[in-house]
Amino acid sequence: MTKYLYTGARLLDNRIVCLVTEGERITYIGEARPEGVFDRIIDCRGNLLMSGFYNTHCHAAMTLFRGYGEDMSLREWLDTRILPAEDRLDDDKVYYGSLLAIAEMLASGIVSFSDMYFFCDKTANAVLDSGIKANISRSLVSFEEGMTARNDPRFLEGVSLARDYHGKGDGRLLVDLSIHAEYSNVESYIRDVSDYTAENGFRMQLHLSETEKEHNDCIARRGKTPTEFFYDCGTFRSPTTCAHGVWLTEGDMDILAACGATVSHNPCSNLKLGSGVARVSTLMAHGVNVGLGTDGAASNNSLDFFREMYVASLIAKGAACDPTVGRAEDVLRMATVNGAKAQGRYDCGEVKVGNRADLILVSLDDVNTMPTYDASYTVLYAAKAANLKMTVVDGRILYENGEYTTLDIEKIKDSFKRVCDY
User: Fold this and answer.
1) Which of 164, 183, 303, 392 is 20 to 30 Å from 117 by CA-CA measure?
2) The predicted structure's pLDDT at residue 151
3) What predicted TM-score, i.e. pTM, was given to this entire model?
4) What is the rounded distance in angstroms from the CA atom of residue 420 to the CA atom of residue 218?
């Protein structure tokens, strides 16, 4: 079992401590340097040691479409650019697209991501090969009235994915079920998938009230909001991560809070597609767990979590005309412990003894991070991915000083260039 000692580490509460990891767990945090033999001693002076980030909504392989469709509404972007491009996906495209995304995420401190896409076994293999964590789900759609899931090849792919991959990599890889959205499915299918998910103890991922048109069209079509519709279909019986949630009513928020659902806030994607700004402070006031997500690189166009946190804080303040909202404490919880909770990783997201050692080291000694009066303010408002020194997942160092320990990044880039033929 690998045993590391981190010395002189500054935590978010501004304490300077020593920290020990043994295998995948944190086993000691204290001011005194512990005795013992260590496989490595890491000098953290001048750096912040904190939990890594949990990206609660992503389509990793969409790195293939970064910059492919721009300055369009969501519906136009999907119909004219993305959906036709996705018809040409294959195993290699998704595998190398996912690996490139994982490399970008590790370089910005992301230790785990929730993914909804196709060819999911290839993304799963990329996760296992890289050492990162992920909740993978096969995106499900249905358009024929009366359709059910049990004989649908897409649903059966999701079931097979769960059978073959759930819990792999010592629990790093988890499989969820995924209903793409209200507008892309018929009621009978949604009810069937929801029943299967609840009966078999899986988690759920879906898109929810991303745009005003989506929200209002559902009300016109069904006489209820998308949240009310999914609730009536039994979807929220399972722990559910709802991506976007830009146009939720306060009644919707009460439903999500009562059901223990998570809203994945995707500020950069929502702003870029002109979808609006989620009312995060109101969601939190209603008791909803709020995580943070990048969405895919096709709509972001970055997987940089430092940028995502910064934008999340600033748009909350700007939209409310109130500088006291979007607080550093709240945004950092969204990025860490709230995200881990959304993924069902209850021993992750906080730097404490007994938790899994999902850690990042951020330089406080760079030109843009000096001086540091309070580490939480520096990491949210000043730090960038360029300041990241190290990313650790389950005690294993995957990224350090610009180098990857499990990925041949030049080979990945060359392979990505070969398969990305759009």
Assistant:
1) 392
2) 87
3) 0.97
4) 36
